[in-house]
């Protein structure tokens, strides 16, 4: 008679993971590349290029996320919905970094917790879409799937997927990372620069003035420490002058991600080297699908978007597949339920994960469950709904005794008018003024700062 064994998941029973084992799995949200040979040539070329990020950095992020899971740090993941190749220049990258640093310092100052900064940056070029086609002026066109696939111009030719774009995505990611690495290590992130991160258009608005006053307090606190002779940099001389910004994007195109996997024979570990953290979208998180298969074999921190249709059983099965060994800092569960539903939908999910005994990072994406089309026809979100969803997310975790570990935001350092509300009130009639996103509406810098003050308050409560 057979002894009773723990049932293996269908995956383990089927066979071992390899970087291309995802190819036998059902897959959705993929472009149809017109030239298979060209695609193969591009993927071969990518496979020979250097990694964009390195295993040591990926492991470091995992350790930092383990601290978040324990409640000893907070995660700020933020950036564009969809990056554009055309925004890959020093001034745009600087302005994205600036607003992320502003938010992080407000959160740290307000809560006393270190903030782990992860950008939706240097690779966030692919977008899942609700339909493969769209009607533009009565003409049916293939939908824009992000700069890594096609061009958004409304013509059939522009919308044709072009595999060459996978290479361009790699090189634009590399150029963006180069600017980020320089700025985070070369004085721009120095805490004594906290005032200079405020941009002129932000200074004029109420959130900007509140930021100025917090920046002044921070400057005084630093002077006070120095005057007392407290050497806060004794262990780490760079603590006040340098920072880390990790990169992340949705791992939507397994072809691209596979080409950038790299093996470390000494430890037998595979890393995805296109970004430090990769996440699986709400539309591609099928347990037996290609995306989950590929991510399950990589050592990176993996995010999973957790939307309203997931059940506690689905979520536990996903956690078991992606984190069979309960590695702290491995999983970031990104809840995106909508402000009205998170209070009902999140508690059973949190409980089910708690019962598995693992420590995960729970983050709140208050953007994707609160999107709607306004009367003027723009896809938008209200800052009030975004704030409310984060408040509810905190309330659920406080009552479950779990950690509200972080927030996941779509924002920009620019003065756009894409989301409604804020002290500088953006109204529906203003959306047309500076609506610049390539996909979903982003918070502008002053709305983002206003939100950070609110999150800092929640962290203190
Ligand atoms: C996104 O993060 O831009 C996105 C498409 O999210 P989701 O998978 O949660 O819909
Ligand atoms: Mn989005």
Structure overview:
With 461 residues, the protein is an alpha/beta fold. The protein contains 13 helices and 14 strands. The strands form four sheets. Strands 1-2-5-8-9-10-11-14 form an eight-stranded parallel beta barrel, surrounded by five helices. Helix 4 crosses helix 5 (164-185) and helix 4 runs parallel beside helix 13. The radius of gyration is 22 Å and the shape is globular. The termini are far apart. Residues 81, 128, 250, 281-283, 305, 307, 336, 368, 440 line the site of phosphoenolpyruvate (PEP). Keywords: Amino-acid biosynthesis, Aromatic amino acid biosynthesis, Transferase. Belongs to the class-II DAHP synthase family. InterPro entries: Aldolase_TIM, DAHP_synth_2. It catalyses: D-erythrose 4-phosphate + phosphoenolpyruvate + H2O = 7-phospho-2-dehydro-3-deoxy-D-arabino-heptonate + phosphate.
Rounded mean pLDDT score:
94
Order of strands, main sheet, comes to: 1-2-5-8-9-10-11-14
Number of strands: 14
- The Cα radius of gyration reads 22 Å
Shape: globular
For the termini, the CA-CA separation is: 58 Å
Beta-strand residue percentage = 5-15%
Instruction: List low-confidence stretches.
Output: 1-14
Q: Biggest sheet, open or closed, and with what strands and sense?
A: 8 strands, parallel, barrel
Structural class: alpha/beta
Count of individual helical segments: 13
Estimate percent helicity.
25-40%
Oligomerization category of the chains in this entry: single chain
Bound molecules: phosphoenolpyruvate, manganese (II) ion
> How are helices and strands ordered from N to C?
HHHEHEEEHHHEHEEEHEHEHEEEHEH
